[in-house]
Amino acid sequence: MKLGIKIAKLRKENGLSQAELGRLVNVSNKAVSKWETGETSPDILSLPNLADALGITIDELLGRNDSIDKDGANTEALLKFNRIENGCAKEVLKGKKSGADMTGAIDIPASDNGKPVKKIANKAFYMCPNITSVAIPDSVKEIGNDAFYGCKGITEITIPFGVTKIGKNAFLYCDKLQTVNLPNSIKSIGDNAFAKCPALENIALPENVELGAGVFS
């Protein structure tokens, strides 16, 4: 499958507009459009964020270890939680545009095939409104951008000691989130990380933490 066609199919499967994908990759929607029509190709610096946003590896994106068949369907086995790519836990939602089928309590594993889960990847639980709780293992050091975006059912989250970074929009639109327990290991919290969380009344911040724009707006 040609790269542009693959990008377009995966973007649509992830429920993203060209503008939304561009925001995740830090390019314009026009750039995404040119990729998809084959007019241009993503530069090497854009590949990591592009692959992350589309939920695949760079090798899969470039066809080196392709898990996308000729019809564009993901042929990997559907997992309830994790696929580990370079130490990152990622949600695999076969043929789904959202995480609507993910329900209840989620227990993230500390390792998979001997590899530690060090990061909750970008958009790992993007738009999973029926998740009620998430247990994050002590092995995790970073929570990626949009990791729990739109998880409207979560009421409490405990970030384990050792996590140093919470990415942009990590808990944006978590409507029922009331309690967040942050460890002193946190060094930075990205833009809008806890924005649009109306039930969140107070949160104790570690000393010297670097806050992005609109973290609690």
| CATH architecture label of the largest domain | Alpha-Beta Horseshoe
Assembly type of the chains comes to single chain
Report the CATH superfamily of the largest domain. Ribonuclease Inhibitor
Tally of DSSP helical segments: 5
Strand tally is 13
Question: Could you spell the SSE succession in H and E letters?
Answer: HHHHHEEEEEEEEEEEEE
CATH topology-level fold name of the largest domain: Leucine-rich repeat, LRR (right-handed beta-alpha superhelix)
User: What's the shape?
Assistant: globular
**Low confidence ranges:** 65-98
Question: Strand order within the widest sheet?
Answer: 1-2-6-8-10-12-13
Percent strand equals 15-25%
Radius of gyration, CA atoms, in whole angstroms: 17 Å
Count of domain modules = 2
Which range best describes the helical content: under 10%, 10-25%, 25-40%, 40-55%, 55-70% or over 70%? 10-25%
Distance between the termini: 42 Å
Summarize the biggest pleated sheet: 7 strands, mixed
Average pLDDT score: 80
Task: Give an overview of the whole structure.
The chain has helices at residues 3-13, 18-25, 29-37, 47-54, 58-61, and strands at 82-85, 88-91, 104-107, 111-112, 115-116, 119-120, 131-135, 142-143, 156-158, 165-166, 179-181, 188-189, 210-211. It is α/β, with parallel strands linked by helices. It folds into two domains: 1-76, lambda repressor-like DNA-binding domains (434 Repressor (Amino-terminal Domain), Orthogonal Bundle), CATH 1.10.260; 80-217, Leucine-rich repeat, LRR (right-handed beta-alpha superhelix) (Alpha-Beta Horseshoe). The strands form four sheets. It has a seven-stranded mixed β-sheet, with no helix packed on it. A two-stranded parallel ribbon has the order 3-7. A hairpin with a 2-residue loop joins β1 (82-85) and β2. The termini are far apart. Residues 65-98 have low confidence and may be disordered.
